[in-house]
Amino acid sequence: MNDLTKVENFAYSSAKKIFEKAQDFLPINGTDYVELIVGNAKQAAHFYKTALGFEDLAYAGLETGLRDRTSYVLQQGKIRLMLTTPFDPESDMANHLRIHGDGVKVIALWVDDAYDAFEQTTSRGAKPYMEPKTISDEHGEVRMSGIHTYGDTVHVFVERKNYKGLFLPGFEKLDTGYNPGTTGLKYIDHMVGNVELGAMNKWSEFYANVMGFFNLVTFDDKDISTEYTALMSKVMTNGNGYIKFPINEPAIGKKKSQVEEYLDFYRGPGCQHIAVATDDIVFTISEMRKRGVEFLYVPGTYYDTVQERVGVIAEDMEELKKWGIMVDRDEEGYLLQIFTKPVEDRPTLFFEIIQRKGAKSFGKGNFQALFESIEAEQARRGTL
Predict the structure, then answer these.
(1) What is the mean pLDDT of each run of 10 residues along the chain (384 residues)?
(2) What gap in Å lies between CA 60 and CA 135, rounded to an integer?
(3) How far is CA 256 from CA 102, 109, 110, 288, in A?
């Protein structure tokens, strides 16, 4: 199958068998929401609406009785982002902001039973973050619980089968009158965690043993490297495949890798990027570029060998080259992807835009070009 080796095919087939036989003691229906702690939620909401095409959903703050923070919730497709700014300088949220800058705090997972999810994970060694609780209003009740994971990142389990409200109790409808229109984003495809050297196996084992995930694919420093830098990655996924968490750690290289740069500026492990899916990546990227979103530059020479590597695709290669969209393939099909530059001043959080055309996993044909693009940005920042 083009450049896929027999070893890779065997590994992927083995992963599929494990996937099919997985005993899913922690059923997850998808990503419920992602909460980012930010310095100014009002302004961040304006950026995410203007640049990425999110729209108003819900709000909680002083006007709703909250005295310690304000939160704006935005939605596009099935993606919900909660942008929260703390008021109390002594709070854990304020400390998160002081250390990390704007970044992901909560990756909330939609489950059938939040109380059981807490019991299943803590009994297997997870550190509690939120004891099981029930919150309610006139629209019903939501049950929630949570556990710690890498760095200061946490998972909150959300059970909403008995809730008919907009988002969560305590939130009211957000209507600013400003919704510039969608960019075609549908759902969160995966979220990548960067951890320190030597910690990848620890956290992949955490997801396997504590949350019932399995290793879909592993990349070592021979797969993901250039002349100067390298990283290693294990992609962990849950039983139904709705949740994918690649875990990255730096590998030894001549210069500082993107993971090391992230760890330096984020001041520890955290969520490096959020991959969001679209059904029309050309439309999505063209819209985002119009709105000022900056993307990594892909060298034109990258496209000279794409056809040999991925075979026949439906898209016009010249159109993909025009927008800097990369192509990769696995045993099931191919995918189209592109990466934004960091969306804030610290070189930490960025977004990946992905369109899957049958591919279920992650190929490795794009790593070389991607790393060279990231290294070019690191050199401009003086952090390579």
Answers:
(1) 46 49 79 98 98 98 96 98 97 97 98 98 98 98 98 98 97 96 97 95 96 88 62 89 93 77 96 97 97 89 82 90 90 92 95 94 67 72 76
(2) 15
(3) 22, 33, 37, 30
Phi/psi for 134 (5° steps) reads -120, 125
Residues of the chain with pLDDT > 90: what percent?
72
The residues, ordered by sequence, that sit 6+ positions from 253 with a Cβ below 8 Å of its Cβ are 221, 225, 228, 229, 230
CA angle in degrees (0–180, nearest 5) for 68-74-75: 150
Are the beta carbons of 194 and 200 closer than 8 angstroms? no
Cα 174 to Cα 73: distance, rounded to the nearest angstrom? 8
Rounded to 10 degrees, the C-alpha dihedral 16/326/32/269 comes to: 90
**What's the pLDDT at 23?**
57
Q: Specify the amino acid at residue 320.
A: L
- Nearest to 271, CA basis, from 107, 122, 132, 139: 107
The helix (H) or strand (E) run that includes residue 231 is: strand 230-237
Residue pointed to by tokens 């998160």 = 96
Yes or no: say if 190 and 140 are a contact pair by the CB < 8 Å rule.
no
- Total-model pTM: 0.90
Dist CA 295 CA 325 (whole Å): 10
Q: What does the pLDDT look like over 308-358, one tens digit per residue?
A: 888 889 999 899 999 999 998 888 899 999 999 999 999 999 999 999 999
* Residue 91, token pair as written in the block: 């709070």
For residue range 343-352, list pLDDT tens digits in order: 999 999 999 9
Give tens-digit pLDDT for 79-99.
999 999 999 999 999 999 999
